[in-house]
Amino acid sequence: MPRLDGTDVETHTLGGNFSFTGARITDLGATEYTLVDIEVDMSGSVIPFRADLIEAVKAAVEACRKSPRSENLLVRVAAFSTAYHKGLNEVHGFIPLSSIDPAAYDTLRAGGGTPLFDACYSGVGASNAYAKMLYDQEFNANAISFFITDGEDTDSTIRPAQIRAEIELAQREELLESHVSILIGINARSCSGALRDFQREAGITQYIDAGDATKGKLAKLAQFVSQSISSTSQALGTGGPSQAIAATI
Prior knowledge:
Elements: E1 9-13, E2 19-23, E3 32-41, H1 50-64, E4 73-80, E5 88-96, H2 116-136, E6 140-149, H3 160-173, E7 179-185, H4 192-202, E8 206-209, H5 215-235
């Protein structure tokens, strides 16, 4: 698929005054898709390793191009920080890999607080809303969401129960064949207990402590994300989520 321009992408609103973008359904060429949503923390505390964290996200997305099902991936990447309007900065919405410009990630700047709950809610909500549009046009879809943070929430309007309700909505209405959500803590050892509590309260599938924010660990994070995406995409059509997503990084 050729790279999309601005006329090929539509904006959609969500509850909580959030919004997201995605490729026009009528422009999609396949019959089934895996929706990939990556929400990355850009609060002030990530400043010391911001560049390496961005490189990890870029590497994860770039690795997806080598997947045998790369044409069946629609990827959305957003950053969260109170330095952004409404706490969120969508780098790009759900678009094919061929339309992604990796250089766009380099524009992300770190600062402010951590609206983690808002980011998780908007990410899950965007996946659900786009899945509903695909479902209505008789596309088959599953989804995987990653929430990468170095700390617990400090500045959200959304509560964990609202995230859980959004996750359960997709399951109840069968909009997605499956939806795996993964909360990843990087450099977050001091608040791992709070993040695990949040994961359980919000109904997020799993929490993974990725360890310290070293180049080596961030490279492993990129590998984990890309492998999890590939595994989820390969499971599409089987009626269930991937069984090969690792429990650790």
